[in-house]
Amino acid sequence: RVQQWAVSFGKDIAALSTRYSGAKLLQKKYKDVESVVKMEEVDGEELVNKFAEEMEGMLGRKMKSRLAEAAEDADLYHEFNETLEFDYYNSLLVNMVDEDGNPLSLGGEFPLEENEHFNKLPVNTQLSNIQVPTNVYNRPDILNGAYMSEALNDVFIDNFQKDPTLTWQYFGSSTGFFRLYPIQWIPDENGVVTFDCRNRNYIQAATSPKDVVIVVDVSGSMKGLRLTIAKHTINTILDTLGENDFVNIIAYSDYIRYVEPCFKGTLVQADLDNREHFKLLVEGLHVKGEGKVKKAMKESFKILNEVLGQGSLCNQAIMLITDGAMEDFQDVFEEFNWPERRQVRVFTYLIGREMTFADNVKWIACNNKYYTHISTLADVQENVMEYLHVLSRPMVINHDHDIIWTEAYMDSVLFNTQAQSLLLMTSVAMPVFSKKQETLSHGILLGVVGTDVALRELMRLAPRYKVN
Fold first, then answer.
1. pLDDT band at 329, cuts 50/70/90?
2. Whole-angstrom distance, CA of residue 294 vs CA of residue 271
3. DSSP structure class, residue 443
4. Rounded distance, CA 138 to CA 387, Å?
5. What is the end-to-end Cα distance of the chain in Å, rounded?
6. Distances in whole angstroms, Cα of residue 280 to Cα of each of 111, 238, 261, 276, 285
7. What positions does the domain VWFA occupy (predicted)?
8. Is 231 helix (H, G, I), strand (E, B) or coil?
9. Phi and psi of 335, rounded to 5°?
10. DSSP assignment, residue 104?
11. Alpha carbons 433 and 207: distance in angstroms, whole number
């Protein structure tokens, strides 16, 4: 009886599924087209390569937008003016009014319309605007750069008219200001804009890939504010790195230790996960003992020598963060960095107001071209950013306009609600150089131009039915 019931139940299930699945209808339709349907074998590797070529072509077309050329020409024909003055609006105050309904000073009235290409945000596609982070002041170079880069506005508009799939277009200046088309800027909950384009993924376009070992002094003299400044300096350096870079961090006092023991003796990719992991470990650093930097420098050089052919295959640098060095370690440089060996750049950051035992640190600078003194937290950002100019010089002098794609990210910085920020993006960017005759030999980096691309645009080139 159980067997009979099972057979009957099976027949009922089959009949039910046939009835509601439309299987017979599908079979009939297939019969009608069977003569023209054929099975075709697909080469997976060839398919993926084709998708990659199409994506590269699409992003390449977006970069052939004359932005870099327009920015370089604008700088070429602009004469620097120490007392430059011009009228401008504050984009944070656009269309805002006071208690009496009058437009706020510097606000201005501009029509804004929701636009599908910009995540339904209210924009004006005839305007671009400048954002200056709170730690950058209206210096003459900022004002001249803002005035000079206004020439990009017509190019932004023309690019968007030719390719409506474009989203944000930008010029990120090496001095810190950011020209963006076409959105207004939204302050954070404290009413300020903390965004700094030099900390964003697309600043990778400003330098070639790099291997970086960060060496930080955690001896007893680094207690208090000095350690706080040192930690902030490390985090700022980490923020300038990206997926094409490799990094490790060594702390030293009486002995040396890797902040992450699992990464001992090697470099790891500076992707978002590793950068955030390092930041958590750096936060837990504490000071103790006497600072003996010689062993730490030897270890750093050994890492960079051993990873040749495995890391970024490009620039190599050691970032030394200390309040002074009692040891003379010229022999370390003679052994590892002079003269036949591959040159490793050493950037020294002297921490604290008092410059005790600074001579040995200055000696490093005299023989390795870079030294800076950081006495307060406010000094960190600008001083760290200077190393990007140094590492960019070979690329600038050779005028290598290399195009880079950044890692995918959720860009919530530009938007004022969490719902609007859920748009996965990548940035495609390239460097902008000074073409003025008097600066050609100096390798002056003006900044980076580029555009953000929604990943949904890329996915349209690789429909799921082809890759499943």
1. low
2. 29
3. T
4. 22
5. 45
6. 44, 12, 14, 6, 9
7. 211-391
8. helix
9. -75, -40
10. P
11. 12
What the block records as the tokens of 7 is 């057979």
Q: What are phi and psi of 148, to 5 degrees?
A: -65, -40
Lookup result for tokens 């052994």? 335
- Tokens (6 digits) for 324: 């002074």
Distance, CA of 468 to CA of 174 (rounded, Å) = 44
Query: What is this structure's pTM?
Result: 0.72
- In angstroms, rounded to a whole number, what is the distance separating the alpha carbons of residues 99 and 89? 20
Measure CA 413 to chain center: 13
DSSP string, 253-310: SSSEEESSGGGTTS-EE--HHHHHHHHHHHHT----S---HHHHHHHHHHHHHHTTTT
Asked if the bond preceding 182 is cis, omega within 30° of 0, the reply is yes
Phi-psi region of 133 (alpha: psi -120 to 50; beta: other; left: phi over 0): beta
Q: Please return the burial class of 2, using the count of CB atoms within 10 Å of its CB with bins 0-12, 13-18 and 19+.
A: exposed
**Rounded CA separation 304/342 (Å):** 10
Between CA 467 and CA 245 the distance in angstroms is 31
CB 369 within 8 A of CB 386: no
Q: Are strands 268-269 and 246-252 parallel, antiparallel or unpaired?
A: antiparallel
Are 432 and 446 a contacting pair, CB within 8 Å? yes
Alpha helix (H) residue ranges in 128-210: 140-148, 152-162
Strands (E), 135-209: 169-173, 178-181
> To which residue do tokens 């023991």 refer?
261
Sign of the CA dihedral 449, 455, 457, 462?
positive
φ/ψ of residue 24, rounded to 5: -65, -40
Residue indicated by tokens 């700094």: 196
Tokens of 295: 């062993």
Query: Considering only CA atoms, which of 222, 219, 209 is closest in space to residue 404?
Result: 209
The residue assigned the tokens 């062993």 is: 295
The Cα 415–Cα 188 span in angstroms is 10
Interval 259-278: pLDDT, tens? 999 999 899 999 889 999 99
Q: How many residues does the chain have?
A: 468
CA distances from 189 to 30, 94, 105, 186, 192 (A): 60, 18, 22, 9, 8
Domain boundaries, the chain: 52-203+402-461, 209-382
Residue 225 to residue 232: CA distance in whole angstroms:
11
Q: What is the CATH number of domain 209-382?
A: 3.40.50.410
Task: For residue 228, give the amino acid letter.
Answer: T
Tokens of 121: 């945000």
Interatomic CA distance for residues 396 and 399, integer angstroms: 5
Distances from the Cα of 85 to the Cα of 79, 81, 393, angstroms: 13, 9, 31
Tokens in use for 298? 């030897």
Q: How would residue 394 be classed by pLDDT, with cut points 50, 70 and 90?
A: low
